[in-house]
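Question: Hello, beginner here. Any chance you could explain the protein record under this note? Any guidance would be welcome.
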Amino acid sequence: MLDRIGKEYDYIVVGAGTAGCVAAEKLSRDGRNSVLVLEAGGLDNWIWFHIPVGYLFAIGNPRADWLFRTEPEPGLNGRSLAYPRGKVIGGSSAINAMIAMRGQSADYDSWRDLGLKGWGWQDVVPIFRDIEDHYLGSGEFHGTGGGFRVEPPRVSWKILQAVADAAEQMGIPKVGDFNTGSNEGSGYFHVNQKRGRRWSAARGFLKPSLKRPNLHLETDVLIDRIAFDGQRAEALHCVQGGSTFKVKARREIIMCAGAIGTVQILLRSGIGPSSQLRDLGVEVVADRPGVGRNLQDHLQQRAIYRVSGTPTLNEMYRSLWRRGMMGAEYVLKRTGPLTMAPSQLGIFTSSRAGIERPNIQFHVQPLSLDKFGDPLHEFPAITVSACNLRPTSRGHVTLRSTDINEKPIIAPGYLSTDEDRAVAADAIRVTRRLMKQAALQSFGPTEYLPGPTVSDDDIDLAKAAGDIGTTIFHPVGTAKMGSESDPLAVVDERLRVIGVSALRIADASVMPQIVSGNTNTPTAMIGAKGAAMMLEDSR
C-alpha cells in the first residue's frame, strides 16, 4: 500500500464526494502540489451511476449507498427513516436528484451577517460561475468551461405543465432560472447532466484531473482517525481491505467526508465535545462542543394524488413494451423518461401571507411510490412534495462507538419546534389549494396521501406531516462555520478547524444555516472556496 500510493503528500483530501472532487481538482491544478484523495466508497463503474433514472436502483443499494438510518423520530410519530449517502466517487452527486440549485441570495448574506467575511452572495456568485458549464452560456449569473455541466431536462410531461399552470393561477409566476438570487416561482429544474447522462462531481472534476501526475486517488479506504503532532494535524490512520497504513500531509488535510462522515472522523480523532469523547475512550485533542450538533435537513411532506387521462411513469414503467420503448429512446436519442431526475418541476413560494421570501419548495414528480427503493404504485399518480426551506429544528450526529464499521447515531430532530410544525401544516394546505386549481381539474386529482380523511385542522395536519414526512437528503451544519466566540462553531470563516492547525473542513457540514434549496451545488462551491483558501494561505 505505502509503496503504491506514497507516504507523504502536500495535501490530502478526505472524501471524493461533491466537495472533495472539486477541491482535489483545484488543489492539483497548477501541478506544483502533490494531492492524495482518499475515498471510502468505490469506483463509479456501474451503469446506474450514469443513467439518470438510476437513482431508483442506487438509493438503498449497498453498492451505492451507506444505508444509514435515523433514530426513531418523535416528530415523525416514532418513525425511523433511511438516510441515503453516496458510497462511491462523486459521493451523493452520483445518486442524487441532479438538481442544480444555489438557494437564495439572502441565505449567503445571512452567513455574512453572522460575521463570516467572504461568504455573502456577491462573494460566492463568482465561484458558482467558475465551477459551471451552463447551457445558458456565460453571463452575470452563469459560467462556461467549469466541471459541472448544467442542462435543461430532456423529458416533458403534460401533467407537470398543468401543475405549473395551476401554480400560476395561484399567483406564483413561471420562471426560467431559479439561480439568480431569488428562486420564487415555478419552473423546470436545471440538472447536472450532459446529453442525457448524469454528470456527477467525479465525472466533471475528479476523473479529468486524474491525468495529472500530481493527483492520486485511492478508493475503499476508511479513515480511522487523524494523527496529531501536538495540535497540528499531520497524518491519517487508514484501513483498506483489512490492512492499515498511515499517510502524512506536509501542508494540510481537508475534510470533505460530508455532514455525517466528517463528524465520525473528527470524533474518533479527539475533536468534539470533551465529555462525549471521554465516554468513548478517546483522548481529547480539541474540545469543540459543536461537532455533530446543529444538524439541519429539509423534511418534505410527500403528498400523492391519483390522476387520470394523462400518462405518468407509474403505468409506463409497469408495461414491458413501454419500458422497451423508453430504453430504445434513451439509447437512440438520450431523451425520454430514463433521463428523468427524481423531480422535474419546482415551485418556490411562501407557506402563508406575510413571509418575506419563499420558505417552501415543491418537488413535483410524475410518479409515486411509498418510499425510495419500493416499487412504483400500480395506479397513475403524481407526487407533490413540499419542504420547509429554513427549518428551525436541530438534530445531532454522534458515534455509537469508535469502531469504524459501526453506523453512527443520526437524530435529525424533525418537527421539534412549533414553527416547523406550523410550516408543515401550512405546506399541506398550500398543496391542497394548488391541486384544486382549474388547470388540473381535467385530470381529476384525488388525494391519496395524506388522504381526504385528514382535516385542515392544525393538529391533524401536524400529525399527518409526521406520518408522511421524509428526508429530502440534505443534511448540513454538523461542523458549522462561525466565530471563535460561537460555542458551537467548529471552523472559522476560512474553514480552519478551531483549536488545531493544518486541518480544514470544506463540505456541507460547515453551513451555519441550511440554504433555501437543494444542497449539492452549494456544497461544490464550498469545496472550491475551501481549496482556494488553502492555496492562498500557502503562499
